[in-house]
């Protein structure tokens, strides 16, 4: 228990202060021990600075880059930077449909993940109106932002917030974050950004990642008035049956509550990471390993000759 877990909290992302440096994206990967395929050039240039193009089993946070044309010659394009990760909804579709309780609410508003309970059913993917949950590994376990729960419960800020240099990320009691966001919107409007608005106060019962949208929510690709997917009501009808099946599965699982809440990925071996490689990457990897082994053998030979 810490000051960050004993009351309702929220993160505020201010797009008008963000320089899209992606420091937060890197900090998230680093703290949460999320592997990357970049060494093998896994993500060829997509035509956008947004990279990777979307969340995936090894990226819980992606900074989004939307270009907006203007009528001015001096500045023909304006960037609407955004942040894409789990919103930690108060009324979270993912929690409602999860048959094993792998996803659950915490008192401070965080929607946490218990990796050990996940059976890879992908229901949460269908129920999330923001298309957030992604999966990794052969068992297709869920991966999404945990608000760095392991840091919060030790009185530390989420890694992305801690690293943000221009102060575009704030973390504090939700009411305070809403007030700060509204103040910032007023400031922007007074400077001619007519469409500036605060996103997330009411969507899905209220989000715990709020956003100050300098050019409006839509310019950042955010839909207003979002509610949980229709699948959630259907799943409630089917819950007794799903519950029985899930109970049998859960009973067989050894659950570690400590590892559960904020979960940081266990270190992944190269062999495990290779599951996600394309054929071309495997070939390139094998070639590099072969070359490296040859170099090492030659070096050994030279060292021995010099003795
Ligand atoms: S670290 Fe801060 S400024 Fe950099 S991309 Fe993230 S939110 Fe924007
Ligand atoms: S954004 Fe999606 S994954 Fe995150 S809490 Fe809401 S419904 Fe669940
Ligand atoms: S709160 Fe933690 S897990 Fe979530 S996006 Fe930030 S760094 Fe990643």
Automatic annotation (TrEMBL):
Which InterPro entries does this one have? 4Fe4S_Fe-S-bd (IPR017896), 4Fe4S_Fe_S_CS (IPR017900), FDH_Electron_Transfer_Unit (IPR051555), Formate_DH_Fe-S_su (IPR014603)
Q: What is its main location?
A: other
Cofactor(s), names only, from the UniProt record: [4Fe-4S] cluster
Print the keywords alphabetically. Answer: 4Fe-4S, Iron, Iron-sulfur, Membrane, Metal-binding, Repeat, Transmembrane, Transmembrane helix
Question: Can you tell me where the transmembrane regions are?
Answer: 241-263
Residues binding [4Fe-4S] cluster 1: 18, 21, 24, 164
Q: How is the cofactor bound?
A: Binds 4 [4Fe-4S] clusters per subunit.
Every 4Fe-4S ferredoxin-type domain range:
9-39, 75-108, 109-138
Coiled-coil residues are: none
Supply one GO BP term. Answer: formate oxidation
The GO molecular function terms of this record are:
4 iron, 4 sulfur cluster binding; metal ion binding
What residues does [4Fe-4S] cluster 2 bind to?
28, 145, 148, 160
Does the entry feature the keyword Isomerase, yes or no? no
Task: Identify the domain of life.
Answer: Bacteria
By what name is this protein known?
A: 4Fe-4S dicluster domain-containing protein
């Amino acid at each position: 228990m810490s000051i960050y877990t004993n009351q309702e909290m929220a993160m505020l992302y201010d797009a008008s202060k963000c320089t899209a440096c992606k420091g937060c994206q890197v900090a998230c990967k680093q703290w949460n021990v999320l592997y990357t395929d970049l060494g093998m050039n896994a993500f060829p240039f997509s035509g956008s600075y947004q990279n990777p193009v979307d969340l995936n089993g090894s990226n819980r946070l992606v900074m989004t880059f939307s270009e907006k044309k203007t009528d001015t010659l001096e500045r023909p394009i304006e960037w609407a930077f955004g942040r894409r990760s789990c919103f930690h909804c108060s009324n979270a579709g993912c929690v409602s449909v999860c048959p094993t309780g792998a996803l659950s609410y915490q008192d401070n508003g965080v929607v946490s993940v218990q990796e050990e309970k996940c059976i890879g059913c992908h229901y949460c993917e269908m129920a999330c109106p923001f298309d957030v949950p992604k999966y990794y590994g052969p068992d297709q376990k869920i991966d999404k932002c945990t608000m760095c729960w392991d840091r919060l419960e030790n009185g530390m800020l989420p890694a992305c917030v801690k690293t943000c240099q221009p102060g575009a990320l704030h973390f504090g009691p939700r009411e305070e974050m809403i007030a700060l966001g509204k103040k910032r919107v007023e400031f922007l409007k007074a400077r001619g950004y007519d469409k500036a608005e605060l996103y997330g106060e009411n969507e899905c019962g209220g989000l715990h990642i709020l956003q100050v949208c300098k050019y409006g929510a839509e310019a950042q690709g955010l839909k207003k008035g979002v509610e949980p997917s229709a699948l959630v009501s259907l799943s409630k009808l089917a819950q007794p049956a799903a519950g029985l099946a899930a109970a049998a599965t859960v009973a067989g699982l050894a659950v570690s509550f400590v590892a559960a809440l904020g979960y940081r990925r266990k270190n992944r071996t190269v062999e495990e990471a290779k599951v996600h490689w394309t054929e071309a990457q495997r070939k390139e990897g094998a070639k590099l390993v072969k070359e490296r082994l040859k170099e090492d053998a030659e070096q050994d030979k030279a060292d021995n000759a010099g003795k």
